[in-house]
Amino acid sequence: MQELSYRQIFHTLGKSVREYKKMSLWTPVLVILEVVIECILPFITAQLIDQLQAGCGMDVIMHYSAILIGMAILSLACGSGAGITCSIAATGFAKNLRHDMFEAIQRFSFSNIDRFSTSSLVTRLTTDANNVQMAYMMIIRVALRAPLMVVFAITMAFVTGGPMAVVYVIVSVLLGAILFGIALKVMPMFRRIFRKYDKLNDSVEENVSGIRVVKSFVREDHEKEKFNAASGSLYHDFVHVERILAFNMPFMSLAIDTIYAFVIYFGSQAIVTTQGQLMNVGQMSALITYGFSMLISLMMFSMIFVMVTMSEESARRICEVLIEQPDLKNPDNPLYTVVDGSVDFDHVSFEYSSKAERMALDDVDLHIKSGEVIGVIGGTGSSKSTLIQLISRLYDTTEGTVKVGGHDVREYDLDTLRNQVAVVLQRNVLFSGTIKENLRWGDENATDEELVEACKLAQADEFIQLMPEKYDTYIEQGGTNVSGGQKQRLCIARALLKKPKILILDDSTSAVDTKTDKRIRAGFRSYIPETTKIIIAQRTSSVQDADRIVVMDNGRIDAVDTPENLLRTNAIYRDIYLTQNKASHDETMSELDNEANVQGKEEIAHE
């Protein structure tokens, strides 16, 4: 990732403030008023002490008391107002920030998502957003209040105590330099820590999503060790950082003790030796109060400095998501109509990364007519799924072109293209909600009758009717309360509701029996006869009634032909078929030979 400047970070994050600008501006205004009033209070208190020394009456005391109470109430009102506006601004900013990140992620193409791990994106949306929210809250209120209080306190200290206030300037500069040095030391450590946060979340996500596998292989102890290693590494880094940051408080305490000792000693000496001419008790009291306010503000500033330092890396990580540009974009004048479901691969080659050692697809030349049923078969890693991902433009080709309806897929509006290409994956995803709500991802305006019809075609209606709430049954997150086969059939029904020009099944009937699989394919022919159907399968029975079968091998097309011809001529298809249909192979081959002999005799007789 490119290193971002502070200007880029502020500019990028600033866009998420939006409707909370007014609250963000009101906060510093109220803080300034609060600080000014607080700095005036010791000055008035010093005057009251001087009046008491001079033997003033109760009328004078009541006058000063009324002023002090009024200013204290005004200061409280300003402080409370700043707290309210600051909270609204910071939480609103964080809400917009999470919204903007989520929106940016939704626009990402697969290649963009490949550059960020899922756990890293989750961390940026949660932990990093919270860190930036806290930093923003501190910046617009406490981070402004602390330096303002230091400046005003030092100014009033010079007004009150004269040259003696120079010690405040010296201490402030020294403390500032120390804090800055500590920040420079810990910044690189925080970057390393947040990368380890990602790894920790990776471990948690992987374990939770695969908990059934973990338990079935009794690997709980191994997973615990992995998690403890990631957590322990994070712990050691945090301890190291905290040890460095722990120097803040001792330095602050030393500064406070130094100023108190200096002011009390030299202030008392000045009062005694000059009999109040150079400095009186009221001035000394004000000077001590200003010193205390200044150092408390510096202490607060040191805490803010730590928080902002830690949040800087969070801000960079968030900005990386916000400024990431989708690799796939709509053309300037996109097409909004897909004429038919024809698909053409014109000498297509594709690689997932420029660093890849070989092409995932190599010189693929394939032409599919609209309405054809195409099977795709091949061994593991033969790039079957990669082939179909280019049709809906989840990736762009490295070389060559993919055409749908006679036009390059890069000429279409992305939403238009993907609405006409329905894909049902092997790892089907159902979202938390009712069955109806999940099905209407295919067509949000579908009637109940259309839902039932699609489910009957996908062989899902039968098991839905056995559920307590039928189509209103609630699906848990990830579809954990339905079986793998049920999940696949629901996802097929969802895809059918789109009535797409192209339907792609990526091994999406692997969890259903062959009888049900056959019924589903029969339903396709009757319900969407004009739709091009591309069926990726491991079982030859799933593609036996395809018009043609594409045999993939190591990213290349090894053969394209009818199932019968491939059984005679293609070794890869024959090996797969033999493995799965060993018992009936001899009978099938005998039938094919008989057909060939009969056909040959008929040709001879005709001659």
TrEMBL record:
Keyword Metal-binding on entry: no
Matches recorded under CDD domains: ABC_6TM_Tm287_like
TM region(s), chain numbering: 25-49, 61-94, 142-159, 165-187, 244-267, 287-308
Compartments reported by the entry: Cell membrane
Superkingdom per UniProt: Bacteria
GO molecular function, one term: ATP binding
Domain ABC transporter: 343-579
Disordered: annotated segments: 587-607
Protein's membrane topology: Multi-pass membrane protein
ABC transmembrane type-1 domain boundaries: 25-310
Keyword line: ATP-binding, Membrane, Nucleotide-binding, Transmembrane, Transmembrane helix
PANTHER family: ATP-BINDING CASSETTE SUB-FAMILY B MEMBER 10, MITOCHONDRIAL (PTHR43394:SF1), ATP-DEPENDENT PERMEASE MDL1, MITOCHONDRIAL (PTHR43394)
Name this polypeptide is given: ATP-binding cassette, subfamily B
Organism, scientific name: Parafannyhessea umbonata
Lineage: Bacteria, Bacillati, Actinomycetota, Coriobacteriia, Coriobacteriales
